Model the fold of this input.
Amino acid sequence: MRRLIICLFTYSILVNQAFSATMTETGKVTKYNLSSPSEFVFESYPNQDLIPIRLLGAVKNAGLYHVPANMKLTTLLSLAGGTNNEADLENIVVGNDQQDVVSSKGESKKSLTINLEEVLKEGAKTDYTLNSNDIVLIKNKSPLVSNDTFRIISIVSVLLTACLSAVIIRDRLHRD
Done:
């Protein structure tokens, strides 16, 4: 009886550790899609002046883009292959490490949060015009349950399963 309970308990712990290690490894790598850096050059005609833009986050092809001056944010996202399903389109962050960012309303700030959903509804007049050395971060949506909460729930469920299995086995042995 005790051996069976110890075996079940050990098995539960090993399964939980393997599962949580897998979740941790995959969660860290894909948060901002930094695992595969890339550089892209887009020229519409020869000898055109290009500006560097860093695009990070939940897009198909994150990386350093060299694009023509006055390119719009929506055009850059199209060049990047669009966003992933996890992209938070209501909180796109644009910053610049060399100058302030100017919004479509003329406000100058260190960083700007853009709601792409509203931009697409209102049309091209509110689309952000990219400047040299802009950094665009497309964040992932916040998950309904965080990784830490999920890990705690899985540990508790494994422990409860082990305890309930022990109780059932004990009851069956006492009936005989």
Q: What stands out?
A: Residues 2-29+146-175 form one domain.
